[in-house]
Structures are given as C-alpha cells and as structure tokens.
Amino acid sequence: MTTDEFRRNTDNFCYRHPDRQSFVLCQRCLRTICPQCQIPAAVGVICPECLRQQQKGLTTAQRKAERQWSRPRAVRSIDTRPLVTYGIIAVTALVFLVTLIPGLGTQVQGWLAFNSGLVLPGGPLPFQPWRLVTVLLVHSGFWHVGLNMLALWMIGRSLEPLVGRWRFLVLYLLSGLGGSVAVSLLAPFTWVVGASGAVFGLFGALLVIGRHIGANIRGIAIVIGINLALPFVLALFGAIGSGSFLGALEAIRISWQAHVGGLVVGALVGLIYARTRALRQRTMQIWLLVGLTVALLALLAIPVIFYV
Q: Which residues have a Cβ under 8 Å from the Cβ of 302 and sit 6 or more positions away?
C-alpha cells in the first residue's frame, strides 16, 4: 500500500483525533482509537462514547456500586516503630549518666538497687517494695548497661510490633519483677543491679511466641542457652585457681538467679499472649496477667517465713 493510500484510509487514524495514527480498536464499536481515548474495560479497551452509552444502561444500584469501588480508599497507616523500646533505652541511659556524676551516682544506685531485705516486712532493711522494678534502671558499668540495652534494642524491634506497645511494656516489667523475685528466693540479702532479668524475659517470650507462630526458634534457643551457661562456665574456670566453684560463681558478679527468673516469667507472659490473641479474649488476657503478678508477689512470702 502506498503512502497516499495509507493516509486516505481513515481506519488507520483515531476517529476522535484524525491526526493521530493508531492501530487499536474499541472492543465495543470496533473503531480506531488513540491512547488518549483508550479506556480500560473488562476485556481490552473502549472509547469514551461507548463508555457513556454503557453507563446510561446501568441501573441505580450498579451506578452506586461503581462509584463506591472506583472511589480512592484511605489506607490505615499502622505505626510499627518500637517506641516503648526506645523509651526504655533512653530512660535507662539517662539514669546511667546520672550515676556517673561524682557523689550523686552512689546515692542514685542506693535509691534504686535491689536487695531482698528491702521487700521483707519487719526485716533488717527498710520496706521499699518498689525496688523490685527500679533495679532495672541501674547498672554496674558501661559494658553492663551497653550489652543489656543492645539486647533490648535487637529484640524489641521485632517483638514490640508483634505484641503491641503496652503488652511489650507489661512483659518487660513483669520479667524484671520475676528476676527480682528469683533473687529473693535463691540469693537472699544479695545486692543486685541491672535489667538482665527483663531482657531474659524478652528472650523467653520471643521463644514461646515464635514457637506458636511457626517461626524458626533454634537461633533464639541457642542464644538463651549460651547466656544461661556463661556464668557457670566462667565460674568453672575461676574455680580452677580458687578451688571453690561457689566462691568463683559469686566473684563474677552475674546474677544468674535474675536471668532464670526473668526467663521463666517472660515465657509465661509470652504463653498468655500466644493463647489469648483474639479480641474476645482480651479480658481473659488481662486477668491472667493480673493473676501472674499476684502469684509473683505471693512468692515473696517465702523469704518472709524463712529469713525474717
């Protein structure tokens, strides 16, 4: 076909824009339409005139449905930033910086550190039960606070968005409480500082929740095992020189009791979260958490009976 014949053939140009060449046909009227006139349809494309005719034949219900589904919908934005994790790290770091101030630092540690004698009514020390939790804010040195906050940051980034901010905070505090209760039961009248119990609680919760959602928890289990065994391994090497395993265990100044207590309580809280995930089970979840808190506080009666 010659060029003149091509140009004279109107089928080679858009019927609405004769100066625009096209080879696409409207699937309804089979006329040539350019890209500007092409409107996506269920099959292929149609021209604006056919679209208007099609819309005229729609019923009221069909027009309403078409407007509803063609309207842009707002997508709810969910904030998954671990703000509670960042907040705990910020407060803990601030308290640690305060403890570095000469003169004031010793007093702050004395106000916040934990000793089981402080939760024994009628015991040798003043009754200050809030120290069961404030112990999470004070640390013995830079490496102590650094490693704990690093672990909190690593776990919190994954666990907090998974369980929610308030549940994560409750998990952290209950795990810390569990660590303090374990120290009261297994190492009475021992001064301890640090958030290790709470951090191990996060490990325990992540282990249980990961197991329930079908995640690979082998790596988490290995990390927990290494951290639990570390104090005893160090004490074993220390006992070679000193001849006393218990003395060497005490000398390394790692509260394995808080680690175990936090791990157990964190696993229990994780189990509660995993088994009461449905919205209708929220009340049950709250009561189970309250019951666990009461049970932990009730365990403090054992040191009262045997040590006071």
A: 185
Residue pair 171/270 in contact (Cβ under 8 Å)? The answer is yes
pLDDT given for residue 284 in this prediction: 94
Of the candidates 139, 135, 161, the one whose C-alpha atom is nearest the C-alpha of residue 150 is: 139
Asked, for residue 188, whether it belongs to a domain, the answer is: yes
Q: Quick one: average pLDDT of 119-134? A: 82
Tell me: pLDDT of 175 over 90: yes
Count CA atoms closer than 13 A to 109's CA, side-chain side: 17
- For residue 41, what are the domain limits? 3-51
What is d(CA 245, CA 37) in angstroms, rounded to the nearest whole number? 86
**Residues paired with residue 169 on neighbouring β-strands, in sequence order:** none
Whether 183 and 116 have beta carbons less than 8 Å apart is answered as yes
CA atoms within 13 A on the CB side of 239: 12
pTM: 0.69
Q: Which phi and psi (to 5°) does residue 125 adopt? A: -115, 160
Q: Vertex 34, ends 28 and 37: CA angle to 5°?
A: 65
Number of domains present in the structure of the chain? 2
